[in-house]
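Aim 2, interim progress: modelling of the nicotinic acid-bound target.
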Amino acid sequence: MTDLTSLTAIRAALAAAPAADTAARAGATDRNGQLTKPPGALGRLEDLAIWYAGWAGDARPRIAAPQVLVFAGNHGVAARGVSAFPPEVTMQMVANFRAGGAAINQLSDFAGAQMQVHALDLDTPTADFTQGPAMTGAEVCAAFTTGWNAVDRNADLLVTGEMGIGNTTSAAAIVTALLGGDDWTGRGTGVDDAGLARKQAVIAAGLAANPKRSGLEVLAALGGREVAAMAGAIAGARALRIPVILDGFICCAAALCLQAEEAGALDHCVAGHLSAEGAHARMLEALGKQPLLSLGLRLGEGSGAALAIQVLKGALACHSGMATFAEAGVAAG
Ligand SMILES: Cc1cc2ncn([C@H]3O[C@H](COP(=O)(O)O)[C@@H](O)[C@H]3O)c2cc1C
Ligand SMILES: O=C(O)c1cccnc1
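Predicted structure of the complex, ligand included:
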């Protein structure tokens, strides 16, 4: 069992993360060059297939067992009027996930993915971060561990999603702390101009109350339990060499905490989509990731990433299913 009981231990786990399998990657690159198509004609699908092959440790893999994990948490700052919806919606949506009625249920089914929901201490919101850290060290480690342990070691692809009223405020605060600047705040569930001004003020107060520190310290100070659990799941997948599709603004804020802590921590991740939450494009730039889809989604739950599973499956179907020039008797150029 990996020790995840302190930020120092988590830091060590991130530093010990495995790399991709270079032989599988080289084999996939070689195979890609022999497939019956003009070189590069499948565009980014080719890069995706080669990237996936490296993490799968197989030059000719397929995606057969994707997993979607949805984490839910409540936020102390939600009491400050930063969302268009009340905090009870977090719990109500968890019931909806469990009954199969949310968008992520449909998109997980459609992608052939197993899906689990983890509700993290919903009766105990995190502390209001305008007054000090949202979570203690023990709380953030517990949430991170829940995420890490939720990853199915037999999964061959992971999507992490979230539900937590107020969490676009938490995510924007994290990005502001880690990347600087002051224009990372968006409208989340659809706050009006007054709500947006309240969010900006809450984030400014949160930064003042929590001086900038390392990625994991920022996660504890300004994050939430579901955000920490997503970070834990992304890192746990890496320890198992399971590739990850990142979702929108909140998922990427969790991922950014890992990258801030350990430069290559997201090498096993691709960006599933570009969220309509204003600053997501710049956030993806900071992560060095290009989104697979851009459909104007601003939902979270893992929805955009779950939809992008199909793109990755398509890339692998071509890569692993196509004939080579020699096999098909097609003249190479
Ligand atoms: C019914 C409903 C379903 C959702 N599913 C995801 N979110 C999204 O909205 C929330 C973040 O926005 P804010 O920071 O403005 O509260 C998160 O729970 C996120 O997952 C939802 C929000 C609502 C209302
Ligand atoms: O991009 C997201 O994940 C997002 C944006 C708005 C609201 N909830 C989630």
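Residues 276 and 296 are 5 Å apart (CA to CA). Residues 168, 188-189, 247-250, 275, 277, 280, 298-300 surround nicotinic acid (ligand 2) (CB under 6 Å).
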